[in-house]
Amino acid sequence: AEIAQITLDGPAASGKSSAAKGLAKELNAYFVNTGDMYRALTSVVIAKGIDPETQADAVEAILPEQDIRYVSGEGLDLLLHINGELAEASQVRSPEVAAKVSLVAKIPAVRKWLVKRQREAAELGLIVMEGRDIGTVVFPEAKFKFYVSASPMVRAQRRLAQEGEVSEGATVEKVAAEIAKRDEMDMNRAVSPLKPAEDAVMVDTSDLSLEAVIAMMAERVK
Ligand code: C5P
Fold first, then answer.
1. Which residues are listed for ATP binding in this entry (predicted)?
2. Which of 106, 164, 166, 212 is placed for a possible disulfide with 208 were both Cys, Cβ 3.0 to 4.6 Å?
């Protein structure tokens, strides 16, 4: 099979995960969510009692003992494993992890370590990969790149609707502030900041249904 990558990048809760998943299904491609890889590592960092803000060295030191990877499941499904065990959504998508993940993701050694695993996943075949630096750093040669965004209010409302990912009693304002803080960190870090690739197609999903976004992207690729 011809090996190729389709990349989706964009800020938190922009709808890129759902769009990437739908596009992959439409194209019979593999789907890789790289945010979950950063989140998986962050859950390990938290479990070990390491503060990523002040102990970047300690985070780097545990990397050689960690095994975070996507394993083939049924058909085109890929399953995220953390040290040999299936990652639970409650572990990876928790508010505690969301609060710390950008601190872990800005550590250069962490990025190098995970980017290597992300590039390995592309050996599977046609792949749709989403994250923050996929079109700019992981696969700069990709033929199809999308940068997915939405207005801050729309993103906060979408995130609020995702059960388990926000704290009890969270308001749309609080969620919007959490998202803005994470984006700020992701856009301003020294290594691989979030930004559109020069050749990315910009997709504003604020006023579009998920189906419309997927159809638009599939149209461009086909
Ligand atoms: O996509 P998601 O919001 O789950 O990503 C969680 C965090 O992981 C982001 O806020 C960012 O700090 C980090 N990330 C990254 N590079 C990627 C994907 C995610 O730095 N390619």
1. 10-18
2. 212
pLDDT per 10-residue tile (average), the chain, 222 residues:
83 95 96 97 98 98 97 92 95 94 98 97 93 98 96 93 83 93 96 97 96 97 90
pLDDT value of residue 3: 60
Query: How is residue 80 written in tokens?
Result: 């995220």
Q: Could you give phi then psi for residue 144, rounded to 5 degrees? A: -125, 120
Ligand 1 atom showing the smallest separation from residue 16 Cα: 1
For residues 75 and 89, give the distance between their C-alpha atoms in angstroms, rounded to a whole number.
Answer: 21
Distance, C-alpha 52 to centroid of its chain: 19
Query: Is-contact 25 72, C-beta < 8 A?
Result: no
Residue ranges with strand state E in 105-200: 127-131, 144-149
Cβ–ligand 1 distance for 131 under 6 Å, the answer: yes
Q: Are 195 and 187 in contact (CB under 8 A)?
A: yes
| Rg, Å, the chain Cα set | 17
C-beta neighbour count of 5 within 10 angstroms: 24
CB 35 less than 6 A from any atom of ligand 1: yes
- With a 6 Å cutoff on the Cβ, whether 165 touches ligand 1 is no
Other beta carbons within 10 Å of 146: 28
Name the residue at shortest CA distance from atom 5 of ligand 1.
35
